[in-house]
């Protein structure tokens, strides 16, 4: 993934708000009015004091006492409205961003995701996107609110004496701009490190749960336990550091506010003593400054989070930007299946390196209504060839064609309709068995599902389950045996009912009885279908009309 500068990431993140600009302006308006209402409560108090002391103010004592509760109520209403608007913006944007991330992941599937750390991807979809909520609800508008509110306060304070306005401006800049910059520098990549560490710990835990059988078998438990303890300790140490840093930052902000108040007190006193301002010019600017640090303190807190927010944003944008290995093809004429051809194909997963090519100048004719078997040592490239026929990856050299048309010229949807691909590992979803099989054809009738299951020799087993086809399958199909899973995968492939069936080790986990049923179904379906069959088993290969041996990426 490309590295982007922080500023570009920030600008791109801000750009996403564009469709919600109206709401953003509303949030800033509500926020500013809310703060002003809060700040004017003590300021009016100041005026009341001056009034009580017999001084001249533009508001009578009665008016002040009527205004105070009104301001308090307005403060609450504006604050609530600001929070609601900001969260509406944030969660609407998160939905948009999630949608874009999922679309990007769909495009990148499966090639670009094969080698990726799945734990990291999960953190990206969950915590990274979640963290952007902080940016959209608690960063953009608070910055705008702080700028507008504090500028208005500077003008208000400056009305008493321009010098006081300047003092206020400097105080706001110190707390709201310079301090967050220092804090951000001090916290460095700590927030991001923390995220990486907790992501690693969850991935480690997930691995432990999945690999519990192997761990117990080889008495590997203590090693894994020590690793967990080590990772947990590191994490809590880092969390402690961050909490301490946050504490110091708060103390720093409060000290800076206190110093500003003292400076203001000094300047006000000086101006009052020398007759530049009256008593109101001494008291009101001081109260105004003291009560108006709310918007800028909100910014001081951003210093610790901004780095990790930008890092999360960068990761999310990088996934959205990543180019897939193969783009989906649309807009071409529909093709009917009439045999496939692999011509002089070379392919390596690392594209530039010809040394590590998995397939070397492979050619193969798959004529219609035939069963072609491919045998070969583990790792010689059989599954790779099937993936290329599915156009999951792009060939480096040569061409793969269907019905005489290059597969790069066939609509992706059309290609998937023509091909039924059963991988070496059948993935089951946490759903009923019927729905797991229906993945092959979403609108299949119950009869069609049963028919496919009979062909795959799994119907009888399903009928023994307490809820039959409606039985829930555990996550990853862990409640089913390897052979049962495989036959469900086969049922899916049969249900998909495509003219070209690609089967990768369809019988590796089956006993000979089930294998015989499956092979019989395959042989029968081959009257009108074409089958490319990869298998290590001689018994399975017997149904092939033609068997080709593959050796280190070549057909021998
Ligand atoms: N996504 C990938 N990235 C890099 N290398 C890969 C990837 N997938 C497979 N390979 C490598 O490509 C080679 C061929 O793998 P392939 O899965 O095609 O073998 P196979 O013939 O199907 O083996 P088996 O009989 O064990 O299933 C192997 O060396 C494998 O390690
Ligand atoms: Mg394989």
SSE layout and pairing:
Layout (H helix, E strand, L loop, with lengths): L5 H10 L5 H32 L8 H48 L2 H4 L3 H21 L1 H21 L1 H26 L2 H21 L1 H6 L3 H53 L5 H13 L2 H7 L1 H20 L18 E8 L11 E8 L4 E6 L5 H8 L7 E6 L2 E2 L5 H7 E4 L10 H6 L7 H10 L3 H6 L17 H15 L3 E5 L7 H14 L4 E5 L3 H4 L4 E6 L2 E2 L1
Parallel strand pairs: 3-8, 3-9, 6-7, 7-8
Antiparallel strand pairs: 1-2, 1-4, 4-5, 9-10
Helix pairs in contact: 1-13, 2-3, 2-6, 2-11, 3-5, 3-13, 5-8, 5-13, 6-7, 6-11, 6-12, 7-10, 7-12, 7-13, 8-10, 8-13, 10-11, 17-19
The structure holds adenosine-5'-triphosphate and magnesium ion (MG).
What does this structure look like?
With 556 residues, this protein is α/β, with parallel strands linked by helices. It is built from 21 helices and ten strands. Strands 6-7-8-3-9-10 form a six-stranded mixed sheet, sandwiched between helices. The chain has a four-stranded antiparallel sheet with strand order 2-1-4-5, covered by helices on one side. α5 runs antiparallel to α8. It is elongated. The site of magnesium ion (MG) has 4 residues, from α14. Adenosine-5'-triphosphate binds next to α14.
């Amino acid at each position: 993934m490309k590295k982007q500068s922080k500023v570009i990431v920030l600008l791109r993140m801000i750009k996403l708000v564009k469709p919600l600009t109206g709401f953003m302006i509303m949030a800033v308006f509500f926020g500013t009015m809310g703060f002003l209402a809060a700040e004017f409560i003590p300021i009016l108090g100041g005026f009341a004091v001056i009034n009580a002391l017999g001084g001249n103010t533009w508001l009578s004592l009665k008016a002040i006492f009527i205004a105070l509760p009104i301001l308090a109520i307005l403060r609450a209403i504006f604050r609530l409205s600001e929070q609601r608007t900001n969260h509406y913006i944030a969660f609407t944007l998160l939905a948009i961003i999630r949608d874009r991330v999922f679309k990007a992941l769909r495009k990148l599937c499966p090639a670009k995701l094969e080698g990726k750390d799945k734990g990291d991807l999960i953190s990206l979809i969950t915590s990274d996107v979640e963290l952007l909520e902080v940016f959209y609800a608690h960063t953009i508008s608070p910055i705008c609110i702080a700028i507008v509110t504090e500028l208005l306060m500077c003008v208000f304070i400056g009305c008493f004496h321009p010098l006081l306005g300047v003092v206020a401006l400097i105080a706001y800049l110190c707390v709201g701009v310079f301090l967050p910059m220092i804090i951000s520098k001090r916290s460095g990549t700590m927030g991001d490190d923390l995220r990486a560490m907790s992501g690693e710990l969850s991935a480690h835990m997930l691995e432990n749960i999945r690999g519990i059988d192997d761990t117990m078998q080889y008495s590997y438990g203590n090693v894994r336990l020590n690793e967990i303890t080590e990772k947990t300790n590191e994490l809590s140490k880092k969390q402690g550091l961050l909490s301490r840093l946050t504490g110091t930052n708060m103390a720093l902000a409060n000290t800076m506010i206190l110093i500003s108040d003292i400076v203001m007190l000094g300047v006000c006193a000086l101006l009052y003593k020398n007759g530049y301002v009256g008593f109101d010019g001494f008291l009101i600017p001081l109260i105004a400054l003291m009560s108006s640090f709310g918007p800028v303190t909100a910014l001081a807190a951003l210093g610790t989070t901004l780095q990790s927010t930008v890092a999360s944003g960068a990761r999310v944008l990088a996934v959205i930007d990543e180019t897939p290995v193969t783009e989906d093809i649309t807009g071409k004429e529909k093709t009917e299946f009439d045999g496939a051809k692999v011509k002089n194909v070379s392919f390596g997963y690392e594209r530039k390196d010809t040394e590590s090519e998995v397939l070397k100048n492979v050619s193969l004719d798959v004529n219609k209504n035939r069963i072609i078997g491919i045998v070969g040592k583990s790792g010689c490239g059989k599954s790779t060839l099937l993936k290329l026929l599915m156009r999951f990856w792009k060939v480096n050299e040569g061409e793969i064609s269907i019905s005489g048309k290059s597969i790069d010229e066939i609509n992706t949807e059309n290609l998937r309709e023509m091909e039924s691909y059963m991988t070496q590992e059948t993935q089951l979803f946490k759903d009923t068995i019927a729905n797991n099989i229906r993945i092959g054809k979403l609108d299949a009738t119950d009869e069609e599902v049963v028919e496919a299951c009979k062909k795959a020799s799994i119907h009888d087993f399903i009928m023994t389950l307490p809820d039959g086809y409606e039985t829930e399958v555990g996550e990853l199909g862990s409640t089913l045996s390897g052979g049962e899973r495989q036959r469900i995968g086969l049922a899916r492939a049969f249900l998909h009912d495509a003219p070209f069936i690609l089967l990768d080790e369809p019988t590796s986990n089956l006993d000979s009885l089930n294998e015989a049923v499956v092979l019989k179904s395959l042989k029968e379906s081959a009257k009108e279908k074409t089958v490319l069959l990869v298998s290590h088993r001689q018994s399975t290969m017997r149904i092939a009309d033609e068997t080709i041996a593959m050796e280190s990426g070549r057909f021998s």
